[in-house]
Amino acid sequence: MQNQLEEIKKEVTKRIRLEFEKKFQGNKRQFAKKAGCDEKTIRLLLDFGQGMTLNLLFKLAFALDISASDLIKDLSLIEE
């Protein structure tokens, strides 16, 4: 299960990164400001060094002008 959770974390981060690149052209400071979090948090997240809380997921989705459900769409744990 832990491996599956890591893969889901990577996929969600990848989706955030793609939207971030489109909307903020790589400007982490602007993204952090719009999301209401620290630029270091954004940097760590996008470098796959940090997980995220549900609160942060919603803040990032808001900053990206998408719903949090779009970021996690079609992701699920498969019973082993």
Attribute tags:
5 helices, 434 Repressor (Amino-terminal Domain), single chain, DNA binding, XRE family transcriptional regulator, globular, mainly alpha, 80 residues, 69% helix
Describe the structure.
By secondary structure, this protein is mostly helical. It has one domain (2-70): 434 Repressor (Amino-terminal Domain) (Orthogonal Bundle). 69% of the residues lie in helices and 0% in strands. The chain has helices at 2-24, 28-35, 39-46, 54-64, 68-72. The radius of gyration is 12 Å and the shape is globular. The mean pLDDT is 91.
What is the CATH T-level topology?
Answer: 434 Repressor (Amino-terminal Domain)
Please, how many helices?
5
Output the helix-strand order.
HHHHH
Average pLDDT, rounded to a whole number, is: 91
Structural class, from secondary structure content?
A: mainly alpha
* CATH homologous superfamily grouping: lambda repressor-like DNA-binding domains
Which regions are unreliable across 5 or more consecutive residues at pLDDT < 50? Answer: none
Protein name: XRE family transcriptional regulator
GO molecular function, one term: DNA binding
Organism: Flavobacterium resistens
